[in-house]
Write a structure and sequence with these properties.
The chain is built from 13 helices and 6 strands. It is mostly helical. The chain folds into 3 domains: about 60-135, DNA polymerase, domain 1 (Orthogonal Bundle); about 150-215, Orthogonal Bundle (DNA polymerase, domain 1); about 220-275, DNA polymerase, domain 1 (Orthogonal Bundle). One of its GO terms (cellular component) is type II protein secretion system complex.
Length: about 280
């Protein structure tokens, strides 16, 4: 038995040589990455030489300085500037990309305005590093002209376009929403118009006012389903519930009767209350 096992485990000289070659190859493969790194050491950047070159660049170009941002060097105009009037070429000199410049100019073309330096951070594409690099030089000029204030419930589309930030498209949307709503109770409701976000509203809020006496009341005891359906605050099921409750229980005497309708919550009731007439 031992003899058979010995014969089974024994190796010939040729097999021993082959195993030795295999071991050597494995060692070479494992050692290769370390040998490569040792032979190809990364050269370090000489930071002192870099900043000396940057200083020479500053001297050769008065009015500009080197700004290191995320490993890149940009030319940055040191003089004060107003983002509401700065030309495209000047934006690019500040290190702002062509795409970002296009967004800023498009925003201004539509009536947009920057009222404080922080407003620039809200522009899509402007990064924190962009803003930090140029923030010390932002100088927004105060508007000296008198501010035109528009009454939302009576203004036509031409009048609305006189408001900074409102173009023909926004004016059309505001009037369409106003007609469905029956008028604005407060100017914050204009934010419910499609496309008018907080930034846009903040830009135009000082130019708007509302006379709530001019809203159109809804005769809740006589209005039809189709006309009540136009009210933006009510969905199809809620309108149907109001009409069906009236048919079953008779005319509404007050808001208390509407509170009996389960699918209309208190939040909706507060929104529609100024528009309802119980005559």
């Amino acid at each position: 038995m031992k003899a058979q096992l010995k014969n089974y485990l024994s190796l010939t000289k040729k097999e021993w040589n082959g195993m030795l070659v295999l071991v050597i190859l494995i060692i070479v493969v494992l050692a290769a990455p370390y040998v490569y790194q040792w032979c190809h050491k990364d050269s370090r950047i000489n930071s002192k030489a870099f900043y000396e070159a940057a200083a020479q660049l500053n001297k050769a170009n008065p009015g500009y300085q080197a700004v290191v941002d995320a490993g890149r060097t940009k030319a940055s105009n040191l003089s004060k500037f107003d983002p509401n009037t700065l030309a495209a070429a000047k934006w690019k000199a500040l290190g702002i990309s062509d795409k970002q410049v296009s967004i800023i100019l498009n925003y201004r073309a539509k009536g947009g305005r920057f009222y404080k330096p922080e407003d620039l951070k809200k522009v899509y594409g402007i990064t924190d590093s962009n803003y930090k690099a140029i923030a010390p030089y932002i100088d927004i000029s105060a508007r000296k002209e008198s501010v035109l204030v528009i009454e939302l419930n009576t203004a036509d589309s031409a009048r609305l376009t006189q408001v900074s930030g409102i173009g023909p498209a926004y004016a059309k949307r505001i009037i369409y929403y106003r007609e469905r709503l029956g008028g604005f109770v407060n100017k914050e409701q204009v934010k419910e118009v499609y496309g008018l976000d907080e930034l846009k509203y903040a830009e135009m809020a000082g130019q708007l006012k509302v006379d709530a006496r001019r809203i159109r009341k809804i005769p809740i005891n006589a209005i039809s389903f189709d006309k009540l359906r136009l009210m933006p605050y009510l969905n199809y099921k809620q309108v149907n519930a109001i009409i069906e409750y009236r048919k079953e229980h008779g005319n509404y005497a007050s808001m208390a009767d509407l509170r009996n309708i389960a699918i209309i919550d208190e939040g909706i009731l507060r929104k529609i209350e100024p528009y309802l007439s119980f005559e």
